[in-house]
DNA sequence: TATCATACATACTGGTTGGTATGGAAGCAC
DNA sequence: GTGCTTCCATACCAACCAGTATGTATGATA
């Protein structure tokens, strides 16, 4: 157990700085549009540090997916959905927490951005990104299933198909809003998705 | 009125060859990933021809959007929806016509691919792509509205919000399927979207 | 404190690629 | 058939950028 102060040399700290700077740059220039030197300048380190921690640009990109993007998905979706009583309330809560600032709308979804750009070009990217999508959908699926058990979700819907539909629609709205550069598109999407989710609640027993 | 035979020099023919070759290349390498020389080789012309017809790579990309992608959207969505009696039947028909071959699934949607890659980086791309999305949604919206008049669509739904939801979900599924490289994802999406569309029909008058 | 692996910094290189300069052949005007 | 414009080919250039080679400072270890 070593205490992490901030000596002039701190490997894990440097690695994190690189990852964060690279994520930012990739987020709004794409992976191919990102210049290593720009990333290095933003991270405040030099090329030697980068190639010490990573094998190259591709490896850095893969690490972004595994460390940064996976964590974002985990924090925003999986954690709040874990073992929750009413998944519909939880999902609506997450929807409402979705940022609709100009920067976020114009930037789109980091996960989907990278997936659309790199999936056809690099299997290393695709597999890692695909796994995150799978985990995401799995999380929603499990929550819906538990909700069915708890009587909070209609039993006549298929949890996996419904979860996939929800995720697809959510990502689709973010993509549309990004292209339109219009937050109203995203807010409309959130409203509509809420309506959709409400429709998943069990009908009131008219007995 | 001039007859178009095929002399060794034919400007419009050359331009089309360039556009088609560029579209193919961009479709499966992305715009930035596309090499001009590769496009030229595929088109069977040289750089002189390209720079005679277009100002540069960007202009060629813009022309792809305006000519090729706009036409695809027009043919697949707008034409079949134009002035149709029952938009739900029409939309389901279009859904069923969606290709689910490996190449198409892995390639994704040309419109959305370019939009996600280039919208944040080039306003010329973004505006042109955004316009196509707008036209697409407008077409669905108008069809739904007419369907309401014809009594084929529930009157308690908002045509524009519904059309946007439909397009977003459709694109979202295509994106998911592309990343997963799994046609089943897309086919599941088509099924779910059909269910969604069926739900837009007016309830049966129980009188 | 001598040693050595770790953790960086600096300078350079080579390939890729969009773009340009130049020339020439085809076709229309007259 | 001469001149001019359109259309296209060829050769070359310059910038950008990932990657490398090399050097050096740090700090753990013994």
Describe this entry's structure for a reader.
The structure is a homodimer of 207-residue chains. With 207 residues, chain A is an all-alpha fold. Chain A folds into two domains: 1-54, Arc Repressor Mutant, subunit A, CATH 1.10.10; 57-199, Orthogonal Bundle (Tetracycline Repressor, domain 2), CATH 1.10.357.10. The first copy, chain A, contains ten helices and no strands. Chain A has helices at 11-29, 36-43, 47-53, 57-81, 87-96, 102-107, 110-118, 123-149, 159-180, 183-198. In chain A, helix 1 packs across helix 2 (36-43), helix 1 (11-29) packs across helix 4 and helix 9 packs antiparallel against helix 10 (183-198). The relative contact order of chain A is 0.11. The interface between A and B is large, with 42 and 42 residues. Chain A binds a DNA duplex (30 and 30 nucleotides) through helix 3.
Question: What are the defining features of this structure?
Answer:
72% helix; DNA-binding; 207 residues; homodimer; 0% strand; mainly alpha; elongated; Arc Repressor Mutant, subunit A; Tetracycline Repressor, domain 2
Short description:
The structure is a homodimer of 207-residue chains. Chain A has 207 residues and is mainly alpha-helical.
State the fourth-level CATH superfamily of the largest domain in chain A: Tetracycline Repressor, domain 2
At CATH level 2, the architecture of the largest domain in chain A is Orthogonal Bundle
Number of domains of chain A: 2
Decide which structural class fits the backbone of chain A: mainly alpha
Give the SSE map:
2 copies of one chain form a homodimer.
Chain A: H1 11-29, H2 36-43, H3 47-53, H4 57-81, H5 87-96, H6 102-107, H7 110-118, H8 123-149, H9 159-180, H10 183-198
Helix pairs in contact in A: 1-2, 1-4, 4-5, 4-8, 5-10, 7-8, 8-9, 9-10
Chain A binds a DNA duplex (30 and 30 nucleotides) through residues 7-11, 14, 35-37, 45-53, 56-57.
């Amino acid at each position: 157990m070593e205490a992490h102060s901030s000596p002039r040399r701190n490997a894990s700290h440097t690695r994190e700085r690189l990852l964060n700077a690279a994520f930012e740059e990739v987020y709004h220039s794409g992976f191919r549009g990102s210049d290593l030197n720009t990333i290095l300048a933003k991270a405040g380190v030099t090329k030697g540090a980068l190639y010490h921690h990573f094998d190259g640009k591709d490896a850095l990109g893969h690490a972004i997916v595994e460390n940064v993007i996976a964590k974002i998905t985990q924090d925003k979706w999986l954690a709040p959905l874990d073992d929750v009583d009413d998944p519909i309330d939880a999902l609506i809560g997450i929807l409402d927490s979705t940022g609709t600032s100009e920067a976020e709308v114009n930037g789109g979804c980091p996960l989907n951005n990278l997936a659309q750009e790199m999936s056809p070009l690099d299997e290393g990217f695709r597999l890692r990104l695909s796994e995150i999508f799978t985990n995401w959908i799995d999380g929603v699926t499990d929550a819906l299933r538990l909700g069915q058990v708890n009587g909070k979700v209609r039993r006549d819907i298929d949890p996996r198909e419904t979860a996939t539909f929800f995720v697809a629609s959510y990502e689709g709205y973010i993509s549309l809003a990004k292209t339109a550069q219009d937050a109203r598109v995203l807010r409309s999407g959130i409203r509509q998705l809420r309506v959709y989710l409400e429709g998943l609640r069990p009908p009131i027993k008219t007995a």
